[in-house]
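Summary for the steering committee. The consortium agreed at its last meeting that each partner would contribute one worked example illustrating the joint modelling workflow. Our contribution is presented below. We chose a case with several input lines so that the handling of multiple components could be demonstrated. No manual editing was applied between input and output; the record is shown as generated.
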Amino acid sequence: MSKIIPIGPYHPLQEEPELFKLYCEGEIVKDIKWETGYNHRGIEKLSESKTFDQVFFLVERVCGICSTSHPFAFANCMEEIGEVEIPDRAKYIRSIIGELERIHSHMLWFGLAGHFIGYNTVFMWVWKYREPVLDLFEMITGNRNSYAMFKIGGVRRDIENNKIGKIKETLDLIRKKTDMLIGAVMDDPVIHARTKGVGILTKDDIINYGAVGPTARASDVAIDVRHDNPYAAYPLVNWKIITAKEGDVFAKVEVRLLEILESVSIIDQCLEGLKKEKEGEIETKVKAIPEGIGTGRAEAPRGEVFHFVKTNGSNYPERHKIRAPSYVNIATFKKSCIGQTISDATISLAAVDPCYCCTERLASVYDKDTGTKVFGGEELIKNSQQKTREIQKTILRNEH
Amino acid sequence: MAEIAEIKEIKKNFKNSITGIELRSPLRATVSIRPDKLVKITEFLYHRLNLRFIIASAFETRQGFEILYHFSNDANGLVLNIHVVLSKKKPEIQSLTGIFEASSWIEREMHETFGINFLNHPNLEKLISEGNWAKGVYPYRKGGK
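What follows is the complete predicted structure of the assembly.
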């Protein structure tokens, strides 16, 4: 009997609210459809009624987790139109904020991924070590989220040199704990069994769907705006793009975990850079933005954020187009989920990091004919966790 | 300003289809083309020059509805905009979904918000308002609320 599994519809933390309907036959997902319209906030239109300074606070609220990536792209865009060059100290601060955000976002994802496949210890651990990163944000910006750090021409707050020691302390902790997690995950046979060969996206799929970020890099498509179209302090520090070849869920875990270490290294170098710059030189005064068009890009934790702005010489954008990375990444579900079992669909959907904290709350399985609920969100996760436990048992049996 | 290699190629192959070129910097350029040549030129950009389709932005001006198709060359950081102007009375253009999947959602969105018709799109349904928006009301047009 064919069943529809709705996943969604409400995703308050996500750039795009969504309802996925998985069409299943038995345990196998045969088709997937996407519906939305539950939480469309009209931010692009709203932006046209705000001054450039106000737009920063608006776009910061496009996404709750990667809240700095949109102001980052918008700042790049406006500075392109106004041909503004920002001071090096501001560049370093921007990169530090961007990378701290990548660390906490990847950790959040990793914790939830652990929870989905039944590794609640991983969930607890990772979220525990994510807290110090949020504390750093509070110390630097005054907020644990939505930091309001960006403005045209620079940043709003300085990172004083006396804070560098504390930041480095936290980075050491993150580095140590990430190493521990990598050691725990990379050799675990059960995690291998649950994630290897699951939800594969090939290189051709990525190019066809235009997918970006860790989703693309895990399929050996080495695109990263920080490298391809350098901005802020990224050309001033040494770092490398992390890629993996397989394109499955495991490859995405691998890419994200190694990116945390890379981010720690970038911040370290930026902090050294900060020491060389004079305190307080954090912005270039910008008087007016001329008429024109501009495109701004930034590499968010989930991939490339793209902003297009058309200005008309006034203080307001005439048109503001925003494309969040999930917009292109979510479309790949059509490739990664079909042919999977329901218990693997949860982790396949989660693998592109579509802010899926709501998936666990709202995914349900309904009987197509009677309309009665067969599985709720909790049952779906239990189903996935059950599969992990069975694999664990089999592996233990084989070892003895 | 030195000429961008990609634009040189487009000029060489589609000389009569280009209606204007604007270079803003060595990494940002806009090429205006005749709307009926969009599919041919996009095929060329995607298959021959290996550019990635980022997204498309539509807006309304006095000339009509304008669309910028943003392409990225990830090898050198170039953002190339392909610009078309569609008539106000009957805004329609060929869909790019035959070339890549990446344009499917944004074409649906532009159809919904601006009322631009994309010919040969396999599934030109509403994307962001999912049916509960009044028919014939296009929120992102000038005067839309």
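Residues 52 and 131 of chain B are 31 Å apart (CA to CA). The radius of gyration of chain B is 16 Å.
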